[in-house]
Amino acid sequence: MIRISIDAMGGDHGPSVVIPALAAVATRRSDIRFIIFGRDEAVRPELEKHPRLAEISEFFHAEISVRMDDKPSQALRHGRWKSSMWRAIEAVKTGQADACVSAGNTGALMAMSKFCLRTMATIDRPAIAAIWPTTRGESVVLDVGATIGADAHQLIDFAILGTGMARALFDIERPTVGLLNVGVEEVKGQEEVKEAGQLLREVNLASMNYQGFVEGDDIGRGTVDVVVTEGFAGNIALKTAEGTARQIAGYLRSAMSRTLMAKIGYFFAKAAFDSLREKMDVRRANGGVFLGLNGIVVKSHGGADQDGFAAAIEMAYDMVRNRLLDRIEADFDLFHARNPLTSVRRSATADEQE
Amino acid sequence: MIRISIDAMGGDHGPSVVIPALAAVATRRSDIRFIIFGRDEAVRPELEKHPRLAEISEFFHAEISVRMDDKPSQALRHGRWKSSMWRAIEAVKTGQADACVSAGNTGALMAMSKFCLRTMATIDRPAIAAIWPTTRGESVVLDVGATIGADAHQLIDFAILGTGMARALFDIERPTVGLLNVGVEEVKGQEEVKEAGQLLREVNLASMNYQGFVEGDDIGRGTVDVVVTEGFAGNIALKTAEGTARQIAGYLRSAMSRTLMAKIGYFFAKAAFDSLREKMDVRRANGGVFLGLNGIVVKSHGGADQDGFAAAIEMAYDMVRNRLLDRIEADFDLFHARNPLTSVRRSATADEQE
After folding, report:
1. A239 contacts on B by Cβ (under 8 Å)
2. Scanning every residue of chain A, which has its alpha carbon at the shortest distance from the alpha carbon of B275?
3. Which PANTHER family match (chains A, B) (predicted)?
4. Domain shared by B229 and B312, yes or no
5. CA nearest A240: which of B140, B134, B250, B287?
6. I need a labelling partner for A1 at 20 to 30 A (CA). Which of A111, A149, B247, B352 fits?
7. DSSP string computed for A196-242
């Protein structure tokens, strides 16, 4: 049985999208159970439309809904303990749920997740991982914006986290990993990226096939299964790719409506265009996964439709089923066993922080 | 008369693409003149095919050709004084040419340009600016990879350089400018980006309409005319966009050949697809411009075809005609007049470096 806690009030559409998405997933996965949090008057009417879903779900009224434009600090102040977002995360902490899914605002969800679940003992910072559609399939890209900047050891943490996710989601024994860097030759790359690369090569983990540096255009090419970078560059890469996809979709629309011939062509090729649109739809490449916390939290795109939200749930389901957290912990143990120096450094840093 | 010096040996195709491109531009611009450098046996046969071009050009044999995979240090060691690349740049320094165009390797071209032309006295570092096709037209994005990292003052330098380029190329009196940042709310952006934003707002230049922060997806949207960022994030954004465009082109090709209906559709809409392909072709969005040097150097894409190389020349032509360097110098004077503190700081730093 896999139990997913749901913040039903998140996203641009709230329960009207979230609840039908749960119902859809429930028909496909017989061993899934939901714990749903949200405002009674908004969620109940939707739930009543899906009696089969209601049967396999528990619903709890939550007073407060975090707004999409709340600042993380506001959300924490007003929504801790009482909001649907907080309570969905808390269900993971208490062990009632195996993972949490919310389409609510990223900053608030990360702040609450960190506060409630805490960062894993072995690492400094969590990361947000994105699933990136590529010509060869899908890759994991992280960090896409949890924090700005990362030193070499944090980059290695991200590499181990991302590898665990690729193993859990893509069913690859030894995912290929690359560090995002720039290729212009007179610039030699950020110092921390170079240092991280050297360490990864030296440690040579059994679970990770480190391939070296990759560039921006390697992401979409699917050159590696896991692309590792710090949050500033990662967020800009992700948003730039989304923007480019939207821009080209716009070109395509206008090209296909400009002349009569083009319109006729569009008519014949409509099915092909529809499948293309699906591939290019940024809302379908859905769900940032928060990695490095003591629990799995999936952030669905705020604008996700029913299919998009369902995809985020399926991702959470797969990560639980494939024991993501156990894999990640095992990899960290292995890494620190091979690289005792890091562990010393790490505990020293941890002491300082206390 | 506008005189452009040409490194005929650069790029994947060398003179066989470069020379026909010059010939094509010459038919469109009656007031253009070329000074061409390259190996005699490679360039002359091409030039002989274009007598009109030969008439308006001077050709000089250059012993050495910088290879596409030469490291900048190698290129400088072997190619200084004697390579076609160096001599094309030098023609700008000596005043024989108004601008230089090369499709040679970026690292070598930047190293030689810096060495030969020197960085402008008022700034710390040059930047590479890209012309980015957007839904609204075109924008200038810089730095896309000259150097990694930039402090607030260097970002402001980039903003002034980029504004000058947008004024010269797009014929806009007061281009809109944005600083590239991340939107995730709990991270407040890099300190240097915030500081640069505050300074730009305070100084409020007449030539620049500073709009605040923009995100990755704003670039393709054309939210601002000039997007300012440091070279690491900028290079990754550029390459990621190129990769995404190529990826979608691949999807499109395979979607249009999968079914008979799609093939029929493609047949009718072929003209529309051709115009779309042109829009999506990364080689056409051609030419990184080196800004911040005492001279204009345009880097054409190494894989550029004849049209691509011609576009790079036209860009150099436009920047010369619209007096790019004069505009930039005037803007820096204005900026430093309004912000005397910066000038003091800047000269202090310059003294230290000597």
Report:
1. 182-183, 215-217
2. A255
3. FATTY ACID/PHOSPHOLIPID SYNTHESIS PROTEIN PLSX (PTHR30100), PHOSPHATE ACYLTRANSFERASE (PTHR30100:SF1)
4. no
5. B134
6. A111
7. HHHHHHHH--TT-EEEEEE-HHHHHHT-SSEEE--HHHHHHHHHHHH
Q: Which residues contact B115 (CB under 8 A, 6 or more apart)?
A: B76, B80
**Interchain contact, A261 vs B269, CB within 8 Å:** yes
Flag if B148 and A107 touch (Cβ within 8 Å). no
Count how many domains chain B has.
2
What phi, psi does B15 have (nearest 5°)? Answer: -60, -30
Asked if A231 and B182 come within 8 Å (Cβ–Cβ), the reply is yes
Note whether B200 and B310 are same-domain residues: no
Q: pLDDT-based confidence at A250, cuts 50/70/90?
A: confident
pLDDT at A269 over 80: no
Pair A127, A326: CB distance under 8 Å: no
The answer to whether the CB atoms of A221 and B242 lie below 8 A apart is: no
**Assigned domain for B288 exists:** no
Task: Look at A217 and B232 and tell me if their CB atoms are within 8 Å.
Answer: no
pLDDT band of A279, cuts 50, 70, 90: low
Max mean pLDDT among A232-241, B182-191, B272-281 falls in A232-241
Determine the pLDDT at residue B283.
53
Of A79-93, B81-95, B201-215, the range with the lowest mean pLDDT is: B201-215
Is residue B292 predicted with pLDDT exceeding 90?
Answer: yes
CA distance B51 to chain A (A): 37
Query: What is d(CA A240, CA B68) in angstroms, rounded to the nearest whole number?
Result: 28
Q: Render pLDDT for A281-316 as a digit per residue (tens, 0 to 9).
A: 655 556 699 999 999 999 998 888 898 899 999 999
What value does the mean pLDDT take over residues B147-160?
93
Q: Has residue A288 been placed in a domain?
A: no
A58 and A169 in a common domain: no
Q: Are residues B148 and B265 in the same domain?
A: yes
Is A271's Cβ below 8 Å from some Cβ in B? Answer: yes
Contacts of B241 in chain A (CB under 8 A): 216, 240-241, 243-244
Which chain A residues contact residue B134 at CB under 8 A? 247
DSSP bridge pairs for A176? A209
